[in-house]
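To close the section, here is one more complete example, presented without commentary so you can practise reading it yourself. The ligand is magnesium ion.
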Amino acid sequence: MNKACFLDRDGVVIVEKDYLRDVSQVELETGAAEAIRQLKQHGYLVIVVSNQSGVARGYFSEEDVRAVNARIDALLAAEGTAVDDWFFCPHHPQGKIPAYTRQCDCRKPGTGMLLQAAQKHHIDLSASFMIGDKLSDVATGRAAGCAAAVLVRTGHGGTAELPTEDVPTAADIRAAVALLLAAPFRKKCRGTPNTNHPNAGS
Ligand SMILES: [Mg+2]
Ligand SMILES: [Zn+2]
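Output:
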């Protein structure tokens, strides 16, 4: 079984630009390439899971999303690293484009993208992490049975209300990875494994 770190895209890997569709606007977050390199050095698959409701809202197409992802790939390659896979949810319950307008399992905090990735890449979710800039990202990681989920203060995390419950936070993706890879933190997080998860032990 593999272990993975799931990353939200906008506000975590790249600077949040509000329904980004223009590839020329793609800008890596500070330390993103280094954070991804570190995760891979520690044996984690790096998988981006992104809500892209702009597709359902008619702001841009799936092809536009893929073009942005390809641009991120190119920027990371220039820094000598890469993510292992990309998943995005094009849906929204109140969209404008009928084909994408529905309640789905993949829109975070739904766990669909993580479960799909786990199946495709043989990932042990209980050994995996999630990093996001919204509390819904943290909720997604937890609901999927990840060992830990960290909220970064970049992107929407900069303006988000501080969580009332105990959610680990970090300044940015690089700080989040440092926290997640720190042995005492990992040990603490493994204290209460989610044995109810369908993938637990499989
Ligand atoms: Mg985000
Ligand atoms: Zn979806």
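Once you have examined the tokens, check your reading against these statements. Residues 193-202 have pLDDT under 50 and may be disordered. The pocket of magnesium ion (ligand 1) is lined by residues 8, 10-12, 133-134, 155-156 (CB under 6 Å).
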